[in-house]
Amino acid sequence: MAHRDTASPLPQNVNMAKIRNKEKSYKKYLESQCSDQWRQYLELTLSAPPGRVRAYVHWHLHNKHKRSMYKPAPYLTHPSCPYQLELLRLRTQDTIHIIPSHLHYALKVPRTDYQDRVCPHCFDKGTTVLGDEIHIICHCPTTQGVLQQFTAKFQGLTRLLDLPPFVSFTPDEKTPMVLGNPPPQVLQKGLKGWVTEATPICSEFAYAIRMHVTSLLPVVVDMSSDYEAAMSSDNNDDFSPILLPPGFQPALTPPNATTLVPLLFHHLGPSPMSPNELWTCPDAAMAQAHGCQRSSCGSVRRGRGGDRYSQRRS
Ligand SMILES: [Zn+2]
Q1: Could you read off the pLDDT of 57-73 as tens digits, one per residue?
Q2: How many A from CA of 59 to the centre of ligand 1?
Q3: In this predicted model, which residue has the larger pLDDT, 142 or 18?
Q4: How would DSSP label each residue in the chain?
Q5: How far is the CA of 159 from the centre of ligand 1 (A)?
Q6: Interval between CA 146 and ligand 1 midpoint (Å)
Q7: 106 CA to middle of ligand 1, Å?
Q8: Mean of the pLDDT values across residues 251-266?
Q9: What's residue 107's pLDDT?
Q10: CA 301–ligand 1 middle distance (angstroms)
Q11: pLDDT surpasses 80 at 213
């Protein structure tokens, strides 16, 4: 059993518990205290400048249902529903090409500040507006059609759960709702019904908006998360543009085994080979691109990942 301060009285429900339940009761009491403090700490970001943490707290934590931080979000308690992973990815700011403000590492250019991550669809039409959750889901002329297609389903959901009509909610209320968060009108006793009925619709919505935004993209973009394991588990996640060093061109034909450059060469300063020949060894080219003269291919790879991890979260 955890040691406690003997000068502090035990809470009433712990005192009242049977001897064999006292430890469990005290553990629950501590969890609830820690959870409250944890959430209060996170809610401090609501008064901070805009950023990814503040966005997460605003949309997913700051609501009437003050769930224990030791328990998963309600939508995750649904035993099985199609596209649940899509909803997880959208909520955890993983897929940066859907919600531009989720950008969490640099691509071809240094990462822009949060408030400058504009909606590319509107930018192309001459409007500069932050591409955050509420914009992409409710306001963007290019993407709001997805929510309109789902309005009938969400209307049916609110009718089923005896809530005010979905169309009567404001965009600021609709956004967390379609991302799986119960609106304030859902009582604690109705939470299970919300999870059962809403999670499949919200998950399908998350899938639909990804498919729609992906269909607008001219090329495949990097939609990877910070996890290397996640990257290797999905071919679409493994795309990472490599910038050529000045004066280098990619080989016109794919290299075969006999044209690969021995790794030794890029440790020896100026190469006796032509740039084209050097480029046939991707790792050698990567070492050049990163100004690395001495590192092995493995360390180059780790170095790139390390840059990403060391970036400031904003
Ligand atoms: Zn837009």
Answers
A1: 999 987 777 778 888 89
A2: 19
A3: 142
A4: -----TTSPPPHHHHHS-GGGHHHHHHHHHHHHHHHHHHHHHHGGGGSSS-HHHHHIIIIISSS----TTS--GGGGSS--TTHHHHHHHHTT--TTTSGGG--S-SSSPPPPGGG-B-HHHHTTT---B--HHIIIII-TTTHHHHHHHHHHHHHHHHHTT-S-GGGS-HHHHHHHHTTPPPTTS-GGGHHHHHHHHHHHHHHHHHHHHHHHHHH-SS------S-HHHHHT-GGGG----PPPTT----SS---GGGPPPGGGGGSSS-SS-HHHHHTSHHHHHHHHTT-SS--HHHHHHHHHHHHHHSPP-
A5: 30
A6: 13
A7: 21
A8: 56
A9: 72
A10: 35
A11: yes
Q: Which contacts of 17-21 are long-range, i.e. CB under 8 A and separated by 24 or more positions?
A: none
Quick check: 165 pLDDT over 50?
Answer: yes
Quote the ligand 1 centre to 113 CA distance (angstroms).
18
Centroid of ligand 1 to alpha carbon of 124 (angstroms): 9
End-to-end alpha-carbon separation of the chain, Å? 40
Q: What is the pLDDT of residue 194?
A: 95
Cα(136) to centroid of ligand 1, in Å? 6
Gap from CA of 253 to ligand 1 centroid (Å): 40
pLDDT band of 256, cuts 50, 70, 90: low
What global pTM score does this model have?
Answer: 0.66
Is the pLDDT at 124 greater than 70, yes or no? yes
pLDDT tops 70 at residue 78: yes
What separation in Å is there between the alpha carbon of 216 and the centre of ligand 1? 12
Distance from residue 245's CA to the centre of ligand 1 (Å): 34
Q: What is the mean pLDDT of the chain?
A: 77
C-alpha 311 to ligand 1 mean position (Å): 27
